[in-house]
C-alpha cells in the first residue's frame, strides 16, 4: 500500500509548538472559567460600586432616617420629604436651580454654536480667538470667582465704569440683590462654559459636508441663511447633547454662587441653590445627613425628569 | 474547582456588598469612660492655627510634659484656620478624634451630645476649683448633664473706631459712642452724610450681640431658646431702621466677621467690635487705619462678651489618663500665663489674671489695651450658648437679613430663628 499524502498544518509540526486544546489546562487555556471576564471587570466594578452604587443606595437609605453626622439615626419614613415641602430654604433653592436651567441652558446651546461658526477657520487670528474663548475653561473656579467678585463688587470695575459714564448714581448691587446676584452667577457660568461647548461644536462643524454650503450658496443663501439652514441642522445631535450636559451642570450649580456670595447663599440665603443647600445641611459637625440625603434624592428625581423631558422633546422633534 | 451557576450571580453581589460595607459603620458608643491607668503611652494633641506664631511655646510645652511624665509621647498636630470644623467633623465621623482637642463650646456641645468627649463632672470634678467659675461653666451643658472640656484661653475686646471715617461723615469722636443707642444714632448721622461710602456698622448682629444688648438667650435649663422677646425685636429694628436710612449697605447684610474686619481695614466701616489682638493685626495689615483708630470699652447693655477656647479629651482615647494629664498640664495656671504672655489672650486658670502682667501699665498702647481687656474679662460672660450651632448662626443671620430688608416682619424672623435653633437641641 502506498501511503496517502496528507496535508499537514505546519503549525502542528515540530517547527511551532502545538496549540493547547480547550479544557485541558496549560498556559494557553482560555474561556473555560466563567469568572475570568469578571476578573477584568473587578477594578471598574469596584469603582462603580464603591463610589456610585453604594453612595446612591446609602443616600436612599439615609433619606428615610433622622441620621446626623455623629448618630446613625432611626427610620422616619417620609418625614424628611414632608419637612422639605414646608422648608422655605428648599423652595428657594429649587426655584433658583430651576431658574438657572431655564436661563443658562438656551444660551449654552446657542451662543457656543455662534462662536464656533465665527471662529471656525485656519487663520491665526481665529486660532487666537479660539484659545481666548477656551481660556476660562482651564482656569480655576476660585480664580474665576475672584475675578468676577472684584469686577462686580459695589466698588468694583463695572460699577466704577457705570458711575464714570454717569449711568448710575448709586452702585448696582450685583452681588447682593436677590435677582442680580443670580444673574451675575449665570453670567459667570456662561462665560466659563462657552469655550468648552464651542470646542465640541467645532468638532461637529468639521463633520458637515462643505458641499452643502456650496449648494446653499448656489441657491442664493447668504451667511445667515447658510447658518440657519445648513449649520444648525447639521449639529442638531451635538446641540441635543450639549443641552443635556448643560442642563445637568446648571441644575447642579455650586461654585459660582458659592464664591460670589461668600459661601452664604446671598443676603438672607435668597440665592442658595440645591447643591449649596445639600452642602449646608450635610456637612459640618451638626450635619443632618438624613435630611441632606432627602434633598439629594429629590434633586436626583428632578434631574431625571428634566433629562427625560428633554430627550422626549428632542425625539419628538427629530421624528417630525 | 468549579462554581455552580447561581454562584455566577451571587459572587458579584457579595463582592459589591463587601466593598460597600467598607463605608458602613460608626455611630456613637454611649459607654462612660472613667479615668484610670498610668500616665503613659502616646497621645495626639490638636490645636487650631497656632503653629505659625507659637510653635516654640507648644514644642516646649510638649517637651516639659514628656520630661515630667517619662514614658509619654505627645504628638502635636496643628490645623490651619480654614475648615477646622470640617476637620473635626471628619475625625469625629471616622472615630479618629485626637486625644486632646482644642475646641469651642458649640463644637464641644455637639461632640459631647454624641458621647465623644469625657464628662469631667464625673471623672474630674475637683478640677473645677482650678479655673474661673464662668470659664468652667462655659463647658457645662445642663441639657446634657455634664462638663466636657478644660477651659483654656479667653478673649474679649473693646470697641475700635476709625476716627478718620467718623470725622469724614460728621460724627464727633469726643465722646465716642458708648451705648447701643448712641451707636445707632451716630450710624444714622453717618448715613445722612456719607450714604453708602462709609457706614458705622459693618455686620448684622450675632447671637452674642443679642446677649450684650440684654436679651435672654436661653431658659435656665438650657432646653429652649428665648432670643425672640421684645428686647430682641428692638435690637433688630435698630438695624432695620439703620439700613432703611442708608446706614448699612445691602452687601453688609451678607458679611461674616472676616468681611467686617476687612471693611474696617479698608476704611468703609466706622466701628469694629474687636478683640485683644485686633490692634496688633491693624498695625501689621492696615497701618494707616491703626494710626487713626480710637479704642473705647465694649458696647454693652449688660456684661461684656467674651469667647473661650478649651481642651476636650476624647472619651474613647486609648490613653485617657495621659490625655487628661496633658489637658490639665496645658491649662494649668503656669502654662496659661506663659501662653498669655506670648499671645494676646487671657488665662482662664483661677488667679492668673492677678498676675502683674495684667495689672501693671508700662505706658504702651498694647499694655493699655491688655489691662482694659483683662478688666473686661473679669466681668465678661460667654454669651454664645454652646447649644447654638453654627447652622443656627447662619439661619439667624439669614432671618435677620430678610427682616432688615423688609421682606419679613422682625418678630416673625426671630420666631423662625428660635424655632430652627430649638429644633437642633438634643431630643429628650
Automatic annotation (TrEMBL), chain B:
Keywords: Cell membrane, Lipoprotein, Membrane, Palmitate, Signal. Residues 1-27 form the signal peptide. Gene3D superfamilies: Periplasmic binding protein-like II (3.40.190.10). The keyword Lipoprotein applies. This is ABC transporter substrate-binding protein. It comes from Micromonospora deserti.
